[in-house]
Design a protein that fits this description.
With 214 residues, the protein is of the alpha/beta class. It has a single domain, classed as Rossmann fold (3-Layer(aba) Sandwich), CATH 3.40.50. It contains 6 helices and 9 strands. The strands form 2 sheets. Strands 4-3-5-6-7-9 form a 6-stranded mixed beta sheet, with helices on both faces. The protein has a 3-stranded parallel beta sheet with strand order 1-2-8, covered by helices on one side. Helix 2 packs across helix 3 and helix 4 packs across helix 5.
Length: 214
């Protein structure tokens, strides 16, 4: 949200459209997904399986995706009366696999039965951390990500994730940018799209013998 490159584009009046992120500047054009609703969908899925101790690996909270998905997680947990402990939320320092590994390693001390991560790369790191701790997914720990990046359905176990409509986002953003370049009106400056939960093998009902990792 405090991106120096975007700030420079504004100063120079250089045409741009934000894709899969927003900003605090109302004049910026953006095409995003409903991140809070996506988080609600994930928590509903996990709670429906019987999970109560659901942890969250947030993306950097300086980004709209990180902040909005974390807010959606908190709201969904609170709405269901589920434990909303500070120890069940870790902010990753980047949307990257090593950051997911580090964040998950810290979260496992609080013995969650499920982890919702702000994107798929963070989940891949969480999967590695779970294996390093001797946990099995999804028997001991369920994992959910966001984006449905290529190949996540081929890992073991295949990843339950939120599918983001990337092609539609790209098309809409390109059309908005062309309109700006051609100096024609942009009827909708902030587009918000829905996402889809894709359920695969990384989520299941919690084990009756939940394990704690010191």
């Amino acid at each position: 949200m405090a991106d120096a490159t975007v700030a420079a584009l504004r100063r120079e009046r250089f045409p741009f459209v934000l894709v899969n992120r927003g900003s605090n500047v109302g004049a910026d054009l953006s095409v995003e997904v409903d991140n809070e609703r996506a988080a609600e969908t994930v928590i509903a899925h996990l709670a429906g399986l019987g999970h109560r101790r659901i942890a969250h690996i947030a993306g950097p909270l300086s980004t709209t995706t990180g902040a909005e998905r974390a807010a959606g997680y908190r709201a969904a947990m609170k709405a269901r009366g589920l434990p909303l402990e500070a120890s069940l939320l870790e902010e990753a320092d980047a949307y990257a696999e090593p950051s997911g590994f580090a964040a998950c390693s810290r979260l496992l001390r609080s013995a969650p039965t499920a982890i919702f991560a702000a994107n798929d790369l963070l989940v891949l790191g969480a999967l590695r951390a779970a294996r390093a701790a001797g946990l099995h997914v999804p028997e001991d720990l369920s994992l959910v990500g966001v984006n449905d990046i290529p190949l996540v359905e081929l890992i073991d176990p295949p990843l339950t994730t939120i599918r983001v409509p990337q092609r539609e986002m790209g098309q809409l953003a390109a059309n908005m940018l062309i309109a700006v370049l051609e100096k024609t009106p942009v009827t909708e400056r902030h587009v918000l799209l829905d996402t889809t939960l894709v359920i695969r093998g990384s989520t299941a009902a919690p084990s009756t013998a939940a394990r704690s990792v010191a």
